């Protein structure tokens, strides 16, 4: 692949974050993704088939729950037909996110997506986001804090 071809694939994946998600231009999804696109996302809930492709359902779920969602692409690496994108996302969880009720708390986490292109459309996505970070920052789970260890008086100190 030529350097300009690699730049083109990186730019197409950047459009997913910047135009589809941050600017809410979900109508661009059909142009960016193949009709048989495969989403590989471990933390994914069961998608409602009425939402369309799983990638569309994921986008709608995030945008409904966090209407102020904002993505920043921090780094991209291109190899053959694949693009790896490291991103940062921030938002406020104002609506239900999967099984989590609205918390109205902000969060900022990072994630990585690896995509495989078929021509100039994304055919497969491996999506990973710091879900634990989202859960902690929105108050869905509390971080376990180890209590301070105090010396016991019933144990003799070694000489």
Secondary structure topology:
Blueprint: H1 3-22, H2 29-32, E1 33-40, H3 54-65, E2 70-79, E3 82-92, E4 106-118, E5 121-129, H4 131-137
Parallel strand pairs: 1-5
Antiparallel strand pairs: 2-3, 3-4, 4-5
- Please give the alpha-carbon distance between the first and last residues: 70 Å
Supply the helix-strand structural class: alpha+beta
Question: Going across the major beta sheet, what is the strand order?
Answer: 1-5-4-3-2
Tell me the quaternary state: single chain
Outline, from the CA principal axes?
elongated
Note down, in words, how this protein is organized.
The chain starts with a helix and ends in a 22-residue tail after the last helix. The protein has helices at 3-22, 29-32, 54-65, 131-137, and strands spanning 33-40, 70-79, 82-92, 106-118, 121-129. A hairpin with a 2-residue loop joins strand 4 (106-118) and strand 5 (121-129). With 159 residues, it is α+β, with helices and mostly antiparallel strands. A 5-stranded mixed sheet has the order 1-5-4-3-2. It has a single domain (3-137), classed as Nuclear Transport Factor 2, Chain: A, CATH 3.10.450.50.
């Amino acid at each position: 692949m030529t350097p300009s071809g690699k730049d083109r694939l990186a730019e197409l994946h950047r459009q997913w974050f910047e135009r589809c998600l941050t600017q809410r231009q979900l109508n661009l999804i059909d142009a960016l993704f193949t009709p048989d696109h495969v989403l590989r996302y471990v933390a994914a809930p069961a998608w409602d088939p009425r939402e369309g492709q799983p990638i569309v359902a994921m986008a709608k779920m995030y945008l409904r729950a966090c209407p102020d969602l904002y993505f920043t692409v921090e780094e991209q690496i291109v190899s053959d037909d694949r693009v790896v994108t490291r991103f940062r996302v921030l938002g406020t969880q104002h609506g239900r996110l999967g099984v989590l009720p609205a918390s109205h708390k902000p969060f900022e986490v990072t994630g990585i997506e690896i995509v495989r292109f078929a021509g100039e459309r994304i055919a497969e996505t491996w999506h990973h986001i710091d879900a634990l970070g989202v859960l902690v920052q929105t108050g869905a789970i509390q971080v376990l804090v180890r209590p301070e260890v105090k010396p016991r008086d019933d144990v003799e100190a070694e000489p």
